[in-house]
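Re: the 528-residue chain
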Amino acid sequence: MAEAFDGILIGGGHNSLVCGAYMAKAGLKVAVLEQSDAFGGGCTTREVTLPGFKHNLHSNYYVGLDRSPILSDLELHSYGLGLIYPERQQGCAFRDGTAFVIHRDVEKTVKSIARISKRDAKTYKELHVKFTEGMLDIITSFMYCAPLPPEKMKERFSGRLGREFWAYNDLSMYEAVDQHFEDERLRVLFKLFLGSFTLENTPKTGIFFPRIFSRIVNFALPVGGSANFLRALERVIVRGRGRVFTGAQVKEITVQGGRARGVVLADRTRLEARKFVASGVNWPLTVRLAGEDHFGAELSKAARKFQWASHGLCTVHLALKKAPEFKSARFEPDINKTFNIFWGAESTEEIDACFEAIHRGELPRLMGNGGSNTHFDPTYAPEGAHLGFWWPFAPFEFKDGGSQAWDKRRKALTREFIEAWAAYAPNLNKRNVMGSYLYTPYDIVRENSNMVRASHHIGAYIPGQLGHNRPHPKVSGFRTPVEGLYLCGSSSHVGGGVTGAPGYNCANAIADDLKLKRFWKPVAPPRL
């Protein structure tokens, strides 16, 4: 006889765990099923260089999580989650030795940017007042509610500020940035910033500019490693008599009479779901697990044509005696101890050339973001030591050798990555670097099959896959044509990154349908 649960969640990433935690705290008996030996998805922390050095392999910057309802609803701080908000949040270093830093204190930011451009410093402060202070709550409600069709969004965003926000939807990300900043260095920061979210300069992606700007000074570092976020969520589930299984690969979602009834695992174990099944794996895989016949021709075709990011990330992790020291610190001393630092690009043309090379299957001029967590949490490394990491943009596969070429070229590429970084931080030499590890796009898909083609936000950010279109207008409300089958993963609104929004939004859909007594107050729909 199959073991029975009220709800089954497929995938052990943070969105499944968020959804599962809400359901468990609401009194349902849930099971979270992860196919690998360790749950976590994109929230993993491992000692990949040397013992005692804790490296976050995927998520490191927790963006705006303090504005999320999840922390307070689930009381995650009481389950072991700690977050650090560094004063120096964002920075950009350049080959000419200049740099600037975005602080949590807006006046300090203005002072730093003014050394680059007084006009852009004034613009930054105006945007800070408008977005970071004036629209933070409305953008939070946009993220933590089911997406509305464009015509409904326009109705709700009918005020002056709302119309201004919605107008970004008609811009490309470059147009959104360039209309505000005149100095190329400011433009480079924001274009690299948006690129790190797998965006490229395509039409109708400008809406990400106010969304990201509103949270640009709200980046947090999880104390002791990203994995601690998942451990806190697991503790909520277990306390609510739920279970998190590892080594439990789902091969089929069982559907009978048009309703999801449970799952079958790779070892043929059957688990029954009395009330719901929620899939935290990507949208195309969910359709295959349940069977295309249950979704119809239109949705099945859309799932097969779902697009993945056209560029990925590759990370070089370093175990260091001393933290990276940037040449630009002579100009802007705060750059060395900035949380999220961008370097490698000097102009929009160089950024464009980078992505063009990636599309050709070539390693581009290396550019991206990284930093050193030990400035803010010394427990990431042994006493007195430091770690560093850098995420440059990279192709998933090379035109010569495909994705497996990452393995063949690993040693040479590791050296190339460190040398490119050392051009900006010269102390990254043999005397300082004690250990290194290159985490490649090919490594990502081998360790996390949910990130197809190393698409770490679980699907491309293009107009046809954003908002009400994510992953398709007919399933953007987190429900599917299969009764009792829901979508709680990053292929749904609002996408990837550690926001927990897809899991939260799915939990609200399930609570509505099951008429659960909520212990939480749902976020009100956006209106401005």
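The longest helix spans residues 118-133.
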